[in-house]
Amino acid sequence: MAAGKYKVSFVLNNKAAEALVSPDEVLVDLLRETFGLTGTKKGCGIGECGACTVLLDGRPVNSCLVLAASVDGKSVMTIEGLEGDSTRTLQDAFLSEGAVQCGYCTPGMLISAKALLDSRDKPSDDEIRKAISGNICRCTGYHRIVAAIRKAADAPGTDDEKD
Amino acid sequence: MVQDDIIGGSFPKPDAGAKMSGRALYAGDMIRPGMLHGKILRSPHAHARVLAIDTEEARAMPGVKAVLTSADIPGQNRIGMTGAKDQRVLADDKVRFCGEAVAAVAAETKEIAEEAIGKIRVTYEQLPVLETTDRALEPDAPQVADAAGNVCIHRKIVKGDWQKGLEEADVVVRGEYRTAPVEHAYLEPEAVLAEPARDGVFFWSTTKSVHLDQREVARVLGWPVERVNAAAAEIGGSFGGKSDIALNAIAALLCVTAGMPVSITYTREESIQVSTKRHPCVIRYIHGARKDGTLTSVRLEIEADSGAYTDYTSTVLPRMIIAGAGPYRVPNVLLEVRGVHTNNPISGAMRGFGQPQVAFACERQMDRLAEALGMDPIDLRLKNALIDGDASATGQVLSGVTLRRILTIARERIARDEEERPEEPLRPYEKRGWGIAAFFYGNGRTGMPNPGAARANLNRHGLVDLAVGTPDIGQGSNTTYSQIAAAAIGVEPEYVRVKSADTRCTPDSGTTSGTRNTSIVGKAVQIVAEKLRRAILTKAAAFYSFNEKEAEIRRADGGFAIVVPGRDPIAFARVATDLEGKLHVEGEYDPPVTPLDENGQGNPYAFYTYGVQCARVRVNAYTGKVTVEKVLAVYDVGTVINPTLFAGQIEGGIGMAVGYALTEEIKLSRGVVQNSNFDSYILPTSMDVPAVEIITVPLPDKEGPFGAKGVGEPALVPGAAAIANAVSHATGADFHSLPLTLEEVTKALEHKEAQQ
Fold this sequence. Notes:
The complex is a heterodimer. Chain A is α+β, with helices and mostly antiparallel strands. Chain A has helices at 27-34, 85-97, 106-119, 125-131, 143-154; strands at residues 6-12, 15-21, 53-56, 59-62, 75-77. Chain A has 2 domains: 6-81, Beta-grasp domain (Ubiquitin-like (UB roll), Roll); 85-154, DNA polymerase, domain 1 (Orthogonal Bundle). Chain A starts with 5 loop residues before the first strand and ends in a 9-residue tail after the last helix. Chain B has 3 domains: 3-22 and 451-589, Aldehyde oxidase/xanthine dehydrogenase, molybdopterin binding domain (Aldehyde Oxidoreductase, domain 4, 2-Layer Sandwich); 31-127 and 192-265, Alpha-Beta Complex (Aldehyde Oxidoreductase, domain 3); 281-445 and 597-755, Aldehyde Oxidoreductase, domain 4.
């Protein structure tokens, strides 16, 4: 083992993963630089913009605030790992509602939306707004994103991903 | 599918799929074998002479592959977004703003690059820091720029005699207004990847013009432009910003020096300190009107802080005064603006190009004038609104002016909203009010040639290849172009493949700025697509021997084809194969404009977008907290090409305006940004944006492609002005500064109470 590095074993996008990490390394850098998962974006580095949102054991977190060493034994889901019917429903809704402009916030938005829809069947618009309140979008003014999540939430359910 | 379904259809953006799956590659996502990491050493001082730079220790570090200072620049160390080439890539004589690049390193890892930067020793002689335009204009002020004096541009518009006009006025309203510097805050920080190319260098840029990048970087390298090429990576927002030419030049030079690919990505703090800002302004107005509300005179003086270098100041400022009298008929005006250098961050282009500042001050004046006259604010605007045949302040005789109609619709909708809105009682300390702001916005660059260019070709798959130089910065311009081309040719948008912003294979269509993509580049696309349609039909008629007049372009057998009565459809794929090399067309469109003369008279734009925004706000009088409940947007953008993209622009512009009105302000101390990340530079979240209602006036423009005009910047221009007017109506207090922070609102309320 390299000097000053820790070995972490975790589940990344439903597959077993291992890495050597520095004590000060954050999860977003581990994902982007070691695993090449550049779908997770880095917008501020201080947990304010939400572009780096991933699911950690099913809960949305800012991966720039999570120490890489702390994911040992946990499960991490990034935008690249989202799949299945409910994800497609969400993506279709983002497409048709025009929720994607520059796209830099989009992966984080989708992760936050996914976390919401996994936990709430029919969220209110207020709950949708709260769920994405940690994800900054500078392009859309949020309306089309809220409408897309609403549309996905109202779509006939397919519970393919309750894993 | 007929043309009507294409123009006006909400076709989804083809780039959205890759963006939603995480596969889209922004410049900072690109990885190359052997790629080096670049880091830039930046000045901690806003104004200092650079006496010596010692890079010896950094150069000796293992893993360091290139170290640069200004002495290593082979070409010209002078760059700029416009004709004024005054900015340094790397500081030579002085640093003029905090964060200016002084040296750069490329190394095998980010950590080594960071460490090497720390080992470069710079000896500075600190100079007095100019923090305000007031101080910069004093005769004994320190000198920032190379040219004498700190005024970098001075322009005026003179029409009639403003003093005589003021003598004819029954009511005169004066006001001084201040606006803060504002950050674009595109969510993707600046990044670049430069790679060695066969006979030069190639870079992936976050940009609004790869062709400008190419020319500027070539000058810095001292190379012919052909050896430098650039393409836009996926771009994570621009809003008038990006194209950090110094960054692109540094990456290219590091790459050429090391012979390896070099990647540089800014941190958010670096981006906010170093990137350009919306011009902070001091705006002084005098408005004169007769008792019946008729405007007789407008006098305007603006001092805009251009920061350390010229950048877009020379083109942003003329637009400020062109809009200086508002969208109103005023016989006598003197509208004047000075751009003043300081040691603050460079001011540049930001969504609205100077007009949001002017709209705020001008529309506050109109409301204050209405109050002084005892008139309804909408009546006052209706009384003075430009109509067909009126001359603007620059003397341009306008046609297709819809402002009166827009104002009338706005009044009806506000009344309806008041009637239909469920009763929401206010708490005793809360106030509610509406505010309105009107504007007009000329599409394109101001009073100068700015052609859009496009090329099209029918390829062997039977698809149309369309090439344009202007990058799609996320707003969806490529989708709009595909709709315009499809409608002109007679195919569907998915049969048009748009390639944009690559100097190797797209023409220079100018920058993605000034709301010129839909109206100007889109018009070039329409012209080229019509040419391609004619070329396909004419050349195929000769080749296959049919009567061109009987031929149609129609869907057939799963693709598009030439259909002639009495024979099998000739598939586009076959036409392209048989006529290989003969179906390339190109063309351009340059809007009919004239330069402004020394009195600011001329026809600066060929298209004007008109609009009004009305804001309903709730104000907490104890805390000063303003909640924007609803914004009503009434717009004339001519034909709407894509309603979903259009609404996305309006809603996004309103979201950005809420930030400009209420929270966003770059705080500076000795030129150093005090709030350089999103914990202290406060952007609107999903909880802060108002409900939005959009109404369009469907009047096709006589010049634009299929009657369309632009919306990108117009979406933002009136928002903060409408919100400020609403806060004033709700509280009865007067406001002269943006943003309307809690402190600003409570201060104004206390001032009002003290006066009573």
